[in-house]
Specification:
The protein is an all-alpha fold and about 190 residues long. The protein has helices at about 1-5, 25, 40-50, 55-65, 65-75, 85-100, 105-115, 120-130, 150-165, 175-190. The radius of gyration is 17 Å and the shape is globular.
C-alpha cells in the first residue's frame, strides 16, 4: 500500500490540460494515446514513465508551459560534461539568456547559437526549441509571419532531453532519463527541478 502512495501522481499545478487526450493533436504519431487519453496528465505521465520513458519525455514536453519546458531542458543539460566545446557552451549560454529574458531578439540569437553548435547536440536542440517557442520563423524583416506547426516545440524539447539522456551511453540512459523525468514532474508540480 505504501508503494501505491509513493507512486501516486502529483498535482500538476503548472499544467493547464485536464485530460491527456487534449494533447493528442500536438503529439501526432509520437505516442499512442488510447491507453492514457482519459487520464489527467499527471496520471498519464506516471503510466508512461513506468512503461515508456521516451514517450513520457515527449508527453511532458507538450504538457509544460514553454518557459518551464526550456527550464527542464536546461536542468537536463547540467548532467553533461562541464568542458563543453566553445560552440556548445555559447548555445547553453543562449538558453540561459532566453530564460532570463524571453524576447524575440533572444529567441533569434538562440537560433543562431544553436545552428553553430549543431542540431545534433543537446544545446543546439535546446536553442532550436527556443526558436520554435513562439513568434515567426521568418526573417525579422519579413512582415508575413511563418509560425511553426503545433507540437513542434514540444517534440524538439523532448529530443534535446533524450539526446542529453543518451550522452553517457546506453548503460547510463535508464538512470539519466529517470532523473530527468523527475525534474519534469517537479516543474509540472510548480517546484524547482532539483
Amino acid at each position: 500500500m505504501n508503494d501505491e502512495i509513493a507512486t501516486a501522481p502529483r498535482d500538476w499545478s503548472r499544467v493547464k490540460w485536464t485530460r491527456a487526450a487534449q494533447l493528442a493533436p500536438m503529439m501526432g504519431d509520437a505516442l499512442p494515446m488510447e491507453s492514457v487519453g482519459a487520464l489527467p496528465p499527471a496520471a498519464a505521465f506516471a503510466v508512461l514513465r513506468d512503461n515508456d520513458p521516451a514517450g513520457a519525455a515527449n508527453f511532458v514536453a507538450q504538457c509544460l508551459p514553454r518557459v518551464d519546458a526550456v527550464r527542464w531542458v536546461l536542468a537536463c543539460l547540467t548532467y553533461t560534461d562541464e568542458s563543453l566545446p566553445p560552440a556548445r557552451a555559447v548555445a547553453a549560454k543562449a538558453v540561459r539568456r532566453w530564460l532570463a529574458g524571453p524576447s524575440d531578439d533572444a529567441r533569434r540569437l538562440a537560433f543562431q547559437a544553436g545552428e553553430i553548435a549543431g542540431w545534433d547536440t543537446m544545446e543546439g536542440l535546446a536553442c532550436l526549441a527556443i526558436f520554435l517557442s513562439g513568434g515567426s520563423m521568418a526573417p525579422a524583416t519579413q512582415e508575413m509571419p511563418v509560425n511553426p506547426q503545433p507540437g513542434v516545440f514540444g517534440r524538439v524539447v523532448a529530443s534535446a532531453v533524450l539526446v542529453a539522456a543518451h550522452a553517457q551511453g546506453g548503460l547510463a540512459y535508464p538512470d539519466r532519463i529517470a532523473a530527468m523525468l523527475t525534474k519534469a514532474d517537479a516543474l509540472a508540480a510548480g517546484e524547482q527541478p532539483g
